Amino acid sequence: MSSASVQPGRIRILKKGSQPSNGNAGPVVYWMFRDQRLRDNWALIHAVDQANKANVPIAVAFNLFDQFLGAKARHLGFMLRGLKQLNHVMEENYQIPFFLFLGEAEETIPNFLRECGASLLVTDFSPLRKVRNCKEEICRRVGESVTVHEVDAHNVVPTWVASEKLEYGARTIRTKINKKLSEYLIDFPILKPPIRKWGLLNQVTDWDVIIAEVLRKGAEVPEISWCEPGEQAAMEVLMGSKNGFLTKRLKNYSSDRNNPLKPGALSGLSPYLHFGQISAQRCALEARAVRKASPEAVDSFLEELIVRRELADNFCFYQPHYDSLQGAWDWARKTLMDHASDKREFLYTREQLEKAQTADPLWNASQLEMVHYGKMHGFMRMYWAKKILEWTKGPEEALEISIYLNDKYSIDGRDPNGYVGCMWSICGIHDQGWRERPVFGKIRYMNYAGCKRKFDVDGYINYVKKFIMRLVYVRRRWLWRLQFGLLFQMIRSRSTVTLRLVVIPCA
């Protein structure tokens, strides 16, 4: 496959620039945002292809928003450590410079385009409101000669190709996506270094200083240790010889993925997919290659990876109110408002919920799992969100709190899948009306007794307790070692000074 193989349907022209009067095109800049990888990145492939066609150099720019949508050390640390690796490989193997900007992208990106005289800006696709508004403002601020392309490098079938409208649910979008898979679920071309090199490749980014500052500012939600960032780590989770999902754990996926006591049955790819450190299309290609061995598991995985993920992007792209009650269907909004004043057995504040101070040990365990582990099992996330609806003053407050907690603590928060998960649980999107009940109205109901029929509830609660105890023990040991190390250094430092004071006069 040649390098010029990005299907036109994957690219949208956000702004058409005028031809330069002297006929000389400027450099190409790829503003990387959602797809933070070198391998299998359609946006980067397109940017390099366009640069080579015009015989101009290419650079990659990344703008670090200040705590983007509430992101803390857990999220930004993971992201920046992955970008640090990417920066090194990109410049070492491809001679493409990587520019990291701090501030508002509406200012930093247009300024950079002016400084380097760029004629084409390539961006990757995100359906989130903040990012789309940012792109619109960038298009207004760049010069008339600058063209802006948006490439959907995140979905197998580009969002605007899969459907031209807001889809009601998985059953309405599944057929549309499947019809396009033969065209879009194809292998990737090999990314080659650009023909023209950037003038100055010695871009120096003090990653350690930037990461340390981000960790300090976002210390309220510390980093997690179970998930190593970066493209190489992502491929290890997918295809590793020790514990790779497709190589070692796939066969249990369809039978165990809904059991919160068996998290190892899940792929473990969500952090990497969220930050774009691995391509969903690569995951799908590798899964399809091993389908013969585990057809049911692969089909279930592809349903989640392609249909459900792309349904979430469809919702956030075509529904501007994807994170509020306004985004619910009329029937759901009506039933929720009809029951908004129903008496609740318990009422909890956001602070009580955040600290897992409820009368439900199962809910508390799920909240604590997310706070300390950085991830909650998918089945528990449904129960978790529905209980927030049951325990707060109304659906608006329930939705606000669920999104706040998910975005703050979950490593894959601030994602279309997260917004849709909360909206499905609380507002019934991509679902249907059920038997009417107090508080829930016709929204699908879940309770403790139902969970007990599904899995070992007490086992799950104990599993979370043991995990947290181990985590606290590890943190205490780390602090003890840190304090002991500092004390030892102080003692050694003082001993050295004393020895010098004694030895030097004697000489």
TrEMBL record:
Keywords: DNA damage, DNA repair, DNA-binding, FAD, Flavoprotein, Lyase. Its cofactor is FAD. It catalyses: cyclobutadipyrimidine (in DNA) = 2 pyrimidine residues (in DNA). It is an enzyme of class 4 (lyase). Its EC number is 4.1.99.3. Pfam families: DNA_photolyase. Residues 26-159 form the Photolyase/cryptochrome alpha/beta domain. GO terms for biological process: photoreactive repair; UV protection. InterPro entries: Crypto/Photolyase_FAD-like_sf, Crypto/Photolyase_N_sf, DNA_photolyase_2, DNA_photolyase_2_CS, DNA_photolyase_N, Photolyase_Class-2, Rossmann-like_a/b/a_fold. Gene3D superfamilies: 1.25.40.80, DNA Cyclobutane Dipyrimidine Photolyase, subunit A, domain 3, HUPs. GO terms for molecular function: deoxyribodipyrimidine photo-lyase activity; DNA binding. Signal peptide: none annotated. PANTHER family: DEOXYRIBODIPYRIMIDINE PHOTO-LYASE (PTHR10211:SF0), DEOXYRIBODIPYRIMIDINE PHOTOLYASE (PTHR10211). Involved in repair of UV radiation-induced DNA damage. Catalyzes the light-dependent monomerization (300-600 nm) of cyclobutylpyrimidine dimers (CPDs), which are formed between adjacent bases on the same DNA strand upon exposure to ultraviolet radiation. Required for plant survival in the presence of UV-B light. Not involved in the repair of (6-4) photoproducts. Belongs to the DNA photolyase class-2 family. NCBIfam families: phr2. This is Deoxyribodipyrimidine photo-lyase.
